[in-house]
Write a structure and sequence with these properties.
Helix 6 links the parallel strand 2 and strand 3. The termini are close together. This protein is α/β, with parallel strands linked by helices. Helix 3 packs across helix 4. It has a six-stranded parallel β-sheet with strand order 3-2-1-4-5-6. It is globular and about 50 Å long. It has ten helices and six strands.
């Protein structure tokens, strides 16, 4: 199959683990909050399920461990506890290198959007402040904007649509297998930046077109990338 090079018109970033080095804190919050409800969740679980809507993760955990289906309302109540636990932890830092990368992308005249499975409003509001030079609310997709979260293609299709573009015209920057699968399923050129403890193979096996070890490396190599899909 012949590869086709394209020139992207916008770049869509995930939030947790891409814009913020927040996944270690999310892992702690998930484990503490789910334990309150008698649900087991490991650090690896938090990374492997990252990207999808929090209520979907909770429904899956409850179904697997208790054999029952809970309502969206009950899952939201449990997710609210997870958000509360996260809020008690120290403020997470902006991912090193991501602002430099966004500045470079902006200098090329490309659009920048955020596509996150998060429903934690304080973190989303912080995002809009911290990255105000690059991203606005009109180009943000959250858990509240989709019916089907990652790994479904809907989030990244919506992200492209906010620019009036087709998914094949945008690049996705992700860090988690479910997010990678979502970007690839949508038809986007998908770059995985391995900012967590998962082996690079987990991201490659999810379908990433390119895997980078960190955001600084992606920034350094950005201008020399061949976007073949």
């Amino acid at each position: 199959m012949t590869e086709k090079r394209f020139f992207p018109k916008a770049v869509l970033f995930d939030m947790d683990g891409v814009c913020y080095n927040s996944m270690p804190s999310h892992a702690i919050a998930w484990q503490r909050s789910m334990a309150i409800f008698g649900i087991r969740m490991t650090e690896e679980d938090s990374y492997m399920t990252e990207g999808q809507r929090g209520t979907d993760t909770i429904k899956q955990l409850v179904r697997a461990q208790r054999g029952i289906d809970i309502s969206e309302e009950e899952a939201q109540r449990m997710y609210d506890e997870k958000a509360r636990e996260f809020g008690l932890l120290p403020t997470t830092e902006i991912m090193p290198g991501v602002r430099e990368l966004m500045a470079l992308i902006k200098s090329q005249g490309l659009g920048i959007g955020i596509v996150t499975g998060s429903g934690q409003l304080p973190l989303i509001e912080r995002l809009l402040n911290d990255f105000a030079d690059f991203v606005d609310r009109d180009h943000l997709v959250t858990a509240y904007d989709v019916t089907h979260g990652k790994p479904h293609p809907e989030p990244y299709r919506k992200g492209a649509g906010k620019f009036g573009l087709e998914p094949r015209e945008v690049v996705v920057v992700e860090n988690a297998p479910l997010g990678v699968r979502s970007g690839v399923a949508a038809g986007c050129y998908t770059i995985a930046v391995n900012t967590g403890p998962l082996p690079p193979s987990a991201l490659k096996e999810a379908g990433a077109h390119l895997v980078m070890p960190d955001m600084h490396t992606l920034h350094k190599k950005w201008l020399s990338l061949d976007f073949n899909i």
